[in-house]
Amino acid sequence: NRGILLLQFVFCFFACSPPAKLQYLLEPPVQVEVAGRRGDNVTLPCILRIKPNHYKIKWTKLDPEHLGQQNIIMISNANAFKPYGPVGRRASLLRAHTMDASLLLSHLELGDDGRYQCELINGIEDENIVITLRIEGVVFPYQSQHGRYKFNFHEAELACAEQDGMLASYSQLYRAWTEGLDWCNAGWILDGTVHYPIVHPRPVCGGNLPAGIRSYGPKNKNHDRFDAFCFTSQIPGSVFYITGAFSYDQAVYACKRQGSALALVGQLYAAWRFQKYDQCNGGWLKDGSVRFPIVSPRKRCGGVPEAGVRTFGFPSKTTHLYGAYCYR
């Protein structure tokens, strides 16, 4: 027993001891999170408290699933900086003062969500801090027009991109669940795993399991087929509704006459979330689905007590008549 206790003590001495105190970089709060929406400019803070004689600052974006991969954004010294990759083209150093190594990211994109590392390199005692950038947005489930569970992973990625989004990360899906997302169909997310969020447990959705995110774990990206959970953020334009009894082709023309195009599913969700868009009429979208957004639930607008974007699925484009949701 003494041997086991000694082993536990030695392990905890190394594994449980607090991380070394930073010498050159200013110690951040316990958890640093910066939030912004698509199109915003944000600053990721990194401040020097002591400046070595010779040093470099390296900013990298860490792999979102902690797989160890790093994508270099920028390397700088006291005089100049060199950007790398697609994120680097939108990045610069803030340099509000001589000790400021903060990163300024402009025109945020959906894929910018994740963890960023500011590393001071002086060849002797390198140090780093990690900051999380959270893109504010909305997760929406998406299904093929051909029915349930038709996407392999790559097709799910493409489907989200075609609807002005990208596959959601697990943290984005989890946040959406805490905000009320309840969906009984399993869908792909960004890391290649498959899940579905349940707020109100019921027999047809996993039986008597408690509320939570039900997981199927990693699946074969080429052969297994599910729906998709997509993520999008604010949009630069606006969605508007044209009243009418249109076939799909007539709806396309109605939007075109207004100098716009049929809205994408992600654009409608973004308008609902960020612009509080509320419209109690079904309308065509570009993918051939018919939906309507409800901010203030009422009996005559779907009869569901929660706010959300309601769907009529993918009706016949010629025999079913609806209004049109346009985007410009």
From TrEMBL:
This is Hyaluronan and proteoglycan link protein 2. GO terms for cellular component: extracellular space; perineuronal net; synapse. PROSITE patterns: IG_LIKE, LINK_1, LINK_2. Keywords: Disulfide bond, Extracellular matrix, Hyaluronic acid, Immunoglobulin domain, Repeat, Secreted, Signal. The keyword Disulfide bond applies. Residues 28-132 form the Ig-like domain. Disulfide bonds join 184-205, 280-301. The lineage of its organism: Eukaryota, Metazoa, Chordata, Craniata, Vertebrata. GO terms for molecular function: hyaluronic acid binding. Residues 138-232, 233-328 form the Link domain. The keyword Repeat applies. It is found in: Secreted, Extracellular space, Extracellular matrix. InterPro entries: C-type_lectin-like/link_sf, CTDL_fold, Hyaluronan_bind_Proteoglycan, Ig-like_dom, Ig-like_dom_sf, Ig-like_fold, Ig_sub, Ig_sub2. Belongs to the HAPLN family. It comes from Poecilia latipinna. Residues 1-22 form the signal peptide. One of its GO terms (biological process) is skeletal system development.
